[in-house]
Design a protein that fits this description.
The complex is a heterodimer.
Chain A lengths: L3 E12 L2 E12 L3 E5 L6 H8 L7 E6 L2 E2 L5 H6 L2 E3 L12 H8 L8 H5 L3 H20 L15 H13 L5 E5 L7 H18 L2 E5 L3 H7 L2 E6 L2 E6 L1 H5 L2 H18 L1
Parallel strand pairs in A: 3-8, 3-9, 6-7, 7-8
Antiparallel strand pairs in A: 1-2, 1-4, 4-5, 9-10
Chain B lengths: L5 H18 L2 H26 L7 H19 L3 H23 L4 H21 L1 H4 L5 E2 L12 H24 L2 H11 L1 H6 L4 H27 L1 E2 L6 H14 L4 H17 L7 H15 L3 H9 L18 H4 L9
Antiparallel strand pairs in B: 1-2
Helix pairs in contact in B: 1-7, 2-7, 2-8, 2-10, 2-11, 2-12, 3-4, 3-5, 3-10, 4-10, 7-10, 8-10, 11-12, 11-14
Classes of the chains: A alpha/beta, B mainly alpha.
The structure holds adenosine-5'-diphosphate and magnesium ion.
Chain lengths: ~260, ~325
């Protein structure tokens, strides 16, 4: 039980009477890379929002490392070791890439307004360490050369890689990635499964990723969960899920049909 | 480091400020002292609006509370200025923290409106609670004496203001360059992402309100001594406009900008005294010109023209779109 990094138990969410999530269960073991797929509007992002505390679940419970985080504030959940990225770029526009990274370290540092305002020796040492850690973490994702750029000068894909690093820098246990491969250059995309594995293996992070690049999901994920209209319709290892008739109907089928009717 | 950089400009201004009493007449000393008071106001407001992105309109009221509290403690309880001043400052800060409580859950125009309502309420208390505040006509507050130091009251007050303004400038510059400043900017630039990094929204908003209350309180206490007269008019909506103007003209999200903006606005206002009656209209015109041609304030222009001008965490957005998340009528940031 406790080797479950994340457990979602019967979570339901309604927006204006519409069931966006309908008793969703999800159990992710520690050290797993889990893929979360499903057609547009299936509720994947909403599930991440519920887990990270942005939406409260109408019903159900969420356990992070065995303890319930239901009803906790997003900042508290983050402090308990859950990191996430978003579907759109969320770099802070008024900061450089390096400052963005250092902001990711917020929960790992503790100088307060007085020690910062008076530049206490400890606060200054902490600041230097934070900068060092920030550069190291940028290096880990291959973005070190952009440290002093503004986030807005980077391409969309580059911004999103920085956001992954910004989440990793605080050493979370579980990281949720919402369509991380969107906007990546061909080069980066080719190496992206390697990066995901390194995040798991070198940082010991459990990963849950929403992804539309099926090749990536099949290659890198230990298990795949398929969401359709707010319900889990399949859950298992990638090949098994790929051949599940329900999945083909709900997800791949829809796309295929759309493709045929379009041509 | 290039010659023309933030640090050198501020040091130069400080040295200039040290010498002001030696080469200025009484009026010029008064204006210089007024500038120092507005430096305090601008820094606090810039932390709240420019860094933390909270579109609040209570700063003039907190300025007034600092002035009233400092002066009334002297008048009613016969406290000496040196106790009344810190006490008045703490009262203004406490009020700042108090009004932040409802404000913490509001954003955008709702926050603007609720803080405006608070400002109007404060005005009403200043003018109507006659037993405490002496009503709309205002009251005199006793001038401080700097004995046994051999300085006159105006010169002594000027140097006291210079010490306070210098300390607050250095302290604020350190804070905004630290993890606290980054937390403020992260809340301004994306509160959902900030929270997902473990940044406590309410705590940091309260801190920003507390800082602005504190500096407004300091400014108020000094202002009550500068005029030795306190009345409600000084703390009305036009006062709020002046303070906003200092940070917009100086540069949102910049401590140096606050200092330069305070100087620029006070000097402009004093020059406009000649244009009696038209002061507010001309002032408005100057502001519009500024927002049109120097969209990121004085500091934005300095940054553009002097490559060595390092300005950490300066707002990346031009003034016209500086606060989109607030202006969108409380609309929540999209969550996907
Ligand atoms: N804040 C919200 N308010 C109302 N409806 C929402 C909200 N967020 C998402 N939805 C709806 O919930 C459904 C699932 O959305 P989402 O979780 O973003 O899907 P996915 O990420 O799988 O594409 C969609 O129909 C969307 O319109
Ligand atoms: Mg989505």
């Amino acid at each position: 039980m406790t080797d479950l990094a994340l457990a979602v138990r019967g979570v339901s969410v309604q927006f204006g009477g519409v069931h966006v999530l309908d008793s969703v269960d999800l159990s992710v073991r520690s050290g797993e890379i889990r893929g979360l797929i499903g057609p547009n509007g299936a509720g994947k992002t909403t599930l991440l929002n519920v887990v990270s505390g942005i939406h409260a679940p109408g019903r159900g419970d969420i356990l992070l490392d065995g303890t319930s985080i239901r009803g906790h504030k997003p900042s508290e959940i983050a402090r308990r070791g859950l990191g996430r990225t978003f579907q759109t770029s969320r770099l802070f526009r008024g900061m450089t890439v390096l400052e963005n990274m250092m902001t990711g370290l917020h929960r790992r540092t503790d100088s307060n307004i007085f020690s910062a305002g008076f530049r206490s020796r400890r606060a200054m040492a902490e600041e230097r360490e934070a900068e060092h850690a920030a550069r190291k973490s940028l290096d880990f994702v291959g973005m070190a050369q952009f440290a002093d750029r503004r986030g807005t000068e980077l391409s969309f894909g580059q911004q999103r890689v920085v956001e992954i690093a910004r989440t990793l820098i605080s050493e979370p246990k579980v990281v949720l990635l919402d369509e991380p491969a969107v906007g990546l250059s061909m080069n980066r995309l080719a190496e992206f499964d390697l990066l995901l594995r390194r995040i798991r293996d070198e940082k010991g992070v459990t990963l849950i990723l929403i992804e539309h690049v099926i090749r990536l999901v099949m290659e890198v994920c230990d298990k795949v969960t398929v969401l359709s209209s707010g319900r889990v319709i399949a859950d298992g290892d990638p090949n098994q899920v790929r051949n599940d008739p329900q999945v083909i109907e709900a997800y791949l089928g829809k796309e295929l049909r759309a493709r045929y009717s379009a041509s | 480091m290039p010659m023309f950089c933030r640090r050198n400009v501020l040091s130069g201004l400080f040295i200039l400020a040290l010498g002001v009493p030696a080469f200025s007449n009484a009026y010029q000393l008064f204006v210089a002292n007024l500038i120092l008071i507005y430096v305090l106001l601008a820094i606090g407001l810039n932390v709240l609006v420019g860094y933390a992105g909270q579109l609040a309109f209570a700063n003039a009221a907190m300025f007034g509370i600092g002035a009233y509290a400092t002066a009334l403690l002297q008048v009613h309880l016969s406290w000496p200025f040196y106790f009344a001043f810190p006490a008045g400052t703490l009262i203004a800060m406490a009020v700042g923290l108090l009004i932040s409580l409802p404000a913490l859950r509001l954003s955008g125009l709702y926050l603007a409106l609720s803080t405006l309502a608070f400002a109007q309420f404060t005005q009403w208390v200043f003018s109507h609670w006659d037993n405490l505040t002496f009503g709309a006509g205002g009251f005199k507050s006793p001038p401080i004496s700097f004995a046994p130091l051999p300085v006159s009251k105006p010169v002594g007050l000027y140097y006291l203001s210079l010490i306070v303004a210098t300390c607050v400038t250095l302290f604020a510059q350190n804070v905004v360059a630290s993890r606290i400043g980054r937390a403020f900017v992260s809340i301004r630039d994306g509160d959902v992402a900030a929270q997902s990094l473990g940044i406590d929204l309410l705590g940091h908003k309260a801190l920003a309100f507390g800082i602005s209350g504190f500096t407004a309180g300091l400014a108020g206490g000094l202002y009550s001594q500068l005029l030795n007269f306190v009345s409600p008019e000084g703390f009305d909506l036009f006062q709020m406009v002046i303070q906003k103007a200092t940070i917009v003209v100086g540069g949102l999200g910049s401590i140096t900008g606050s200092v330069l903006g305070a100087g620029a606005i006070i000097i402009i206002l004093e020059l406009l005294r000649e244009a009696k009656g038209a002061q507010e209209i001309v002032f408005g015109g100057v502001l519009i010109l500024f927002v049109t041609f120097f969209r990121r304030g004085i500091v934005g222009s300095l940054q553009q023209h002097f490559r060595g001008w390092d300005e950490p965490l300066h707002s990346a957005r031009p003034i016209g779109s500086a606060l989109p998340s607030q202006v969108r009528l409380g609309e929540k940031e999209s969550l996907s």
